[in-house]
Design goal:
The protein has 236 residues and is mainly alpha-helical. It has 13 helices and 2 strands. A two-stranded antiparallel sheet has the order 1-2. The N terminus is likely disordered.
């Protein structure tokens, strides 16, 4: 068994040594079928397996710690952990440092997610959730229906929809998407519409959640986001 593992990890060239060791470490941990909470081999053991110095191993392990793949535990050494998927991503999801094409793609992701969440909403929404949604839309001014984007209203209403899905990962992702969406909306990266069309309002979406079907909601949300799609494509 030991021979098979050694054969898998052939000698590593000196170029980009830490990069290669990092990749080999991840592969090694996968091969050993370690689970969350399991201890990984010591620095010395890893150095021997991969044929590199402990200094290189230490730097590669530091990268894995920064990625949230391992962490140090008293009496157990380094153990496998479940990384926070968006921990590192949130640090780089700064609209001021992202390329214009990436910003537009993030804008598109949010539109796609909200059209696709219908089945989660209909399967998990409660009477209390509906009451909360009614309170949110009742606090919105009537003119909201004609606004292309108001981040306060978006956070309140759409944030509640993400909460209702019960999907914690989706909720974290939404918190990163909205600031980028707001930035792109105001940045001039998208076409300006000369005339905004009337669309399904937040209040009408709540009505669909009460009396409609997932398909009705998908269609309603698509219509609700119509003006945003029009800025991405030539829909005039």
């Amino acid at each position: 068994m030991e021979k098979a593992t050694t054969d898998t990890f052939k000698s590593i060239e000196n170029t980009s040594l830490v990069d290669k060791v990092e990749a080999n470490l991840v592969e090694l941990l996968q091969q050993q079928k370690l689970k969350i909470g399991d201890s990984i081999p010591t620095e010395l053991e890893l150095a021997e397996k991969l044929g590199v110095s402990r200094t290189v191993i230490r730097e590669a392990l530091l990268r894995l710690r920064m990625m949230g793949l391992i962490e140090s535990k008293k009496k157990k050494g380094a153990v496998i952990t479940s990384p926070d998927l968006f921990g590192n991503m949130s640090k780089s999801m700064n609209p001021h440092i992202l390329a214009p094409e990436t910003l537009k793609e993030v804008f598109e992701i949010r539109l796609v997610l909200e059209i696709g969440m219908a089945d989660l909403l209909f399967n998990r929404i409660t009477k209390e959730d509906l009451k909360a949604l009614h309170e949110i839309v009742d606090d919105e001014p009537p003119a909201t229906q004609y606004h292309l984007f108001n981040i306060e209203h978006e956070i309140a209403f759409h944030g509640k929809l993400y909460e209702i899905t019960g999907n914690e990962t989706l909720k974290k992702f939404q918190k990163m998407l909205l600031p980028v969406f707001d930035y792109v909306h105001n940045s001039g990266l998208l076409k300006k519409q000369s005339l905004l069309k009337m669309f399904v309002s937040h209040k009408e979406l709540v009505s669909i959640l009460e009396n409609g079907t997932p398909e009705d909601f998908r269609n309603g949300m698509r219509n609700h986001l119509e003006n945003h799609f029009a800025r991405l494509f030539d829909l005039s």
